[in-house]
Each structure stands twice: as C-alpha cells, then as structure tokens.
Structure of DUF2490 domain-containing protein:
Amino acid sequence: MKSFLPSPSIQLLVLLLLSLASGAQAQTHRLTATPPSYRRFNSWLMVNSDARLNDKWGLHTEAQLREVKGPNAPQQKFLRIGANYYAANILVLSAGYAYTMSFPEGNDSELGSLPEHRSYQQLLLRFDSSRVQTQHRYRLEQRWVRRPGSGQFTYLNRLRYQLRLTLPLSSQKKVLPGTPYLTGYDEVFIGFGRNSDGNIFSQNRACLALGYQISHATSVEMGYLNQMASQEEMASLAANHILHLGLNFNPDFRKGKLTAESN
C-alpha cells in the first residue's frame, strides 16, 4: 500500500524549520522586559523508561528535575507513570497519571509550592523503515493546576503534538548499541476549554541533541532545548534556553528478549 507520509528528507526539513522559527521567536522576546526572578538559562535532567512486559503491554515511567540551580534546588519536579498498549508494530496507545510540583522562586518556602495533577491519553506512531526514524506523538491532557495566589485547583485541557526525528551517525541504518545519533523534535502545546481564557497557545519546545546508544536498552542524550512559554499573569511569552540531559532505559522483558540483548 502506498504511503501518504512525506519522505524522511522532507520531515527533517520541516523539523529544522520549526526549530528555527522557535529560535527566531526567542530572539524577538529578548527585547521584552522581564521580572528580576525570571531565569532565561537553566537545565532539565530527565530519566525515561518504557519497559516492554509482553507482546501487548508495557509500563512507562518518567522523572525530571527542571530549571535546576543545583541538585538540591530544582524549580520544578515532575513524575509520570502510565500503561502502554502495543496495538501494532508502528502504533502504541498509552494512558496514565503525572504529578508536577513547581516552586516559583526555587525552594522559597515563603512563596509556597504549586502542585499539579494530570491524567493523559496518548497515541504514538513510529516509522523506522529508513535511516531517519520518525515518531509522531499526540497527547491529550486533563490538568488540575493550582495557580499563584489561589488555594484551589483550576481544571484545564491541553492538546500536544510532537514530531521527533532520529538519525544514526554511522553507516548503519538503525540505532544499534555503540551507535552515536542525532535526534531532534518540535512539540506544540494547545490549551482549550472553559478555563483557558482564550489563551490557546500554551508553549512550544524545540530540541536538538546528540545521543549515544550504550546497549539495546540504555541510551544517553545531551542537547539544547528552546522553550517558548505563555505567561498568563504577564500576558506575554517567555523564552527559556535549556541544557537537556537525558537517560533512557527501555528494557524488553518478553521471553528470550532480555537474555538475547544482554548477550
């Protein structure tokens, strides 16, 4: 059956254009006055895991420390857990729960913390028939957010779409153990519903990173992430320049898989 997807070269060009557009927005908003507490440069430390339990089911876990001043002073802590259903070779359906704890000024107890509870549903499409591996991620989120100055939670809806491309930096067609690779993605966040206050655009994230596949299950990544985020209280956009550090651990516990990969 003929594929209606654009060629890998076209997909890579689209991703690069989206990243450049996000960077151009960041340059524009550098001229905008921001409060003294605003931090433009920071880092995100990420650990992601998709464990394959059997042919149909898997477990997703994720932990992040965001906007880190030091190991004991993250501005935001993030945890996610979910179930993955492998409907086909290219299609994964997921659902789960995420929890975020934000500190407006780092660990300043006088300002308090801002928790968020979140449920999500996700559809993931993966294509790896060419050297450029392509991933489309569609995610719907239901969020219960405590905003600054409020003792109650506000319910919000959000839709996210991410395009991710991965290219092995070797003569091999796929990313195998011992292979360095280049990966990049662009993700747009759209808010909707009664409490969105007409603010449809929530944020955009564009990332370009170098990775290394240590084993079948483990890889590490380091790169640059540009985040354009809507600031409701200021009616403006904030540009964040982020050092992205990631560890991926994706074991396969299906019969025979774990033993074969460890050998």
User: Anything to note?
Assistant: Confidence is low (pLDDT under 50) at residues 22-38, 106-110.
